[in-house]
Target: 4-diphosphocytidyl-2-C-methyl-D-erythritol kinase
Amino acid sequence: PLDEAERERPRLGRAAPVRVRVPAKINLHLRVGDLRPDGFHELSTVYHAVSLYDEITARSGDTLTLTMEGEGAGHLPLDESNLAIRAARLLAEHTGRPPYARLHLRKNIPIAGGLAGGSADAAAALVACDALWNTGLTRDHLADIAAEIGSDVPFLVLGGTALGTGRGERVSPVLAPGHTWHWVLAFADDGLSTPEVYAEIDRRRANGIADAVAGEADMLLAALRQRDPEILAATLVNDLQAPALALRPELMRTLMAADDVDALAGVISGSGPTCVFLAADSRHAAAIAASLERSGVCRSTATVTGPVAGARVV
Ligand code: C5P
Model:
C-alpha cells in the first residue's frame, strides 16, 4: 500500500511516483565456456525468473538519490557504485535528459546470493525511470542499456524462462507451455563474490581439475516442455557449483539435504551460495522448506514459483 506521502497529489509538472517490481533469477542450466579477452566467460545458460521480488519506487526529484530498506540494508552502497544508480544515469545519458529521481529500494532478494539481486535492482531502476521520465523506450532498447550494466540485467527486464548466451546478456525467450514450477530457495548466512567464483573455476581448469562440464541445454529445454518435475530434476546443471563448493565447503551439507528433505533435486543458483530445490507442487515445496528450516543447514528459506514476468510497473 502507498504511504501518506505517495498518496499526495503530484505537484504540477511533477510526474506521479512509479513503483516497479522485479524478480530474482535462478539458473536451470549454466555452462561456463572460455574466459574471453574482456574478462568475462562465454556462457550458455537457461535463466528462470522466480517469485521473490525487490521493489523500486521512483519519484521526481532535483537530484538523483537512493534509499533502501529490507534485506541487506546498511550493507549495500547507495552511491554511484550501486547498480540502480548506474542504471538511472545510463538511461538519462542515452535519452539526453538530467538523471533526476528519488529512488527507494525495498529489498527481499539477498545480496551476493547468486540470485542476481543487484542486477534485478538495475533492471527495476531502468523500467521505473523510463516510466517516471516518460522516455518510452522499447524493450529492445532497454535491453541494450541493461547489457551495459551487467550480464544478467537484460534477462531481468525480460523475465520468464530464457536462454542466455554471450556473457549472458543476449537473451531469447524459451517457448515452453504455460506451466508453473515450484522451488524452495535455501539462503546462506554470507554471500559469495561472483568474480571470485569465476576465478576459482579458471584456477580449477588451469590446474586440470576435471569437473564435469555441462553439455547443451537441449535436455533441459525438452524437460521444460514435458511439464514433468521428475524429468526436469534430472537435467538441472551448473558449472559454477563445483567452484562455489570449493570456496564454501559447508554448502555441501545444504545440497546433500535434498535427499533427506525429499526434494526432487538440489542445485546451487548461479555463483551461489543460495541453493535451489525442486518440488513437485506447492504442498511439497512447503514441506521441503519446513524440513530445511528444521535441519539447520541454511539461514532461512523461501518457497517460490516460476516463471514470472520481468521488471514491471505495478
Ligand atoms: O556482468 P556482471 O557485472 O554481473 O559480472 C560480474 C562478474 O562476474 C564479472 O566481473 C566477471 O568477473 C564475472 N563474470 C564472468 N563471465 C560472465 C559473467 C560474469 O566471468 N559471463
Q: What stands out?
A: Residues 40-41, 43, 119, 150-152, 167-168, 194-195, 198 surround cytidine-5'-monophosphate (CB under 6 Å). The longest helix spans residues 117-132. The first strand starts at residue 18 and ends at 35. Residues 15 and 134 are 9 Å apart (CA to CA).
